[in-house]
Amino acid sequence: MAEPIRVVVTGAAGQIAYSLLYMVARGEVFGKEQPIILHLLDIPPMVGVLEGVVMELADCALPLLVEVVPTTDPAVGFKDVSAAFLVGAMPRKEGMERKDLLSANVKIFRTQGQALDKFAKKDVKVLVVGNPANTNALVCSSYAPSIPRENFSAMTRLDQNRATSQIAAKLGVPISAVNNIIIWGNHSSTQYPDAGQGKVTVNGSSKSVVEAVNDTAYLQGAFVETVQKRGAAVIAARKMSSAMSAAKAACDHMHDWWNGTAPGKFASMGVFSDGSYGSPKDVIFSFPVEIKNKQWKIVEGLTLSDFAKTKLSVTGKELQEEKDEALSVLDSNVSNL
What we know:
Elements: E1 5-10, H1 15-25, E2 36-41, H2 47-59, E3 65-71, H3 74-77, E4 83-86, H4 98-119, E5 125-128, H5 133-142, E6 152-154, H6 157-171, E7 178-179, E8 182-184, E9 192-194, E10 199-202, E11 205-208, H7 209-213, H8 216-220, H9 222-228, H10 230-238, H11 244-259, E12 267-272, E13 284-292, E14 295-298, H12 306-336
Parallel strand pairs: 1-2, 1-4, 2-3, 4-5, 5-6
Antiparallel strand pairs: 7-10, 8-9, 10-11, 12-13, 13-14
Helix pairs in contact: 1-11, 4-5, 4-12, 5-12, 6-9
């Protein structure tokens, strides 16, 4: 058996974590041969619930789960971790704008960035799930200067999974037959779900999704809107935000980052922008990436339609605004100290 690795999940008493912890501890992310020490970090009011989660993890009798460390102290939570799922954030309620979330979350992710910087392994892989995920990841990274910034990412895999599922249903094919659907930009309603590079296997032969669907109005209209607004639709139906699907997407994201993508297959990840495809530099922007040896690389040279370029410009602008707003909140916090 390999040496155990330490993995932290924040917001560990919450809804997403309730699904996520089981998947991680079962070996679905880091492999069936990789023992795990789980660090469960949450805020003091959640300690009672956290104790219940610890009991349930014990009762699952999971062979790979070596130890569980429940804590409210970031110094303990982030100590020597190799992977971090930053799920805990100020939750979004029905009718609430993402921008209302920014200022509360900036403070949370500053604290976590500082703790990662001091206590985590320097090659830690950090996935931010808590919204607004792209900007939270940016803030977190800026407070962890000793950790390479390419080790911070935001989750847009849920959007990719939603989009892939929509296309598979539209074409009446299994999920596994559809690949390379891309999410560009922000994990918000400005994101651009792009089927333009997608491939689908129909009756044993591979063709482009655009050709198979053969309905531009759908791909530029209902498809994009359904994916963009899916989170709100789930909240309206469940009266709670996506949890099971978010946990599954977090596992998919970290699994691919850890183990690599299959040749010719893309994953969508929110990563620091180098300005590719006309995106603003130095924001966390979702791109198609290929991953080898735990290093992601933006897929270059894809041809974008004018429609796609317009959509990328809108989501890029929002990310730049969020970044500026987050920085101004940080500045005012600093001057209030």
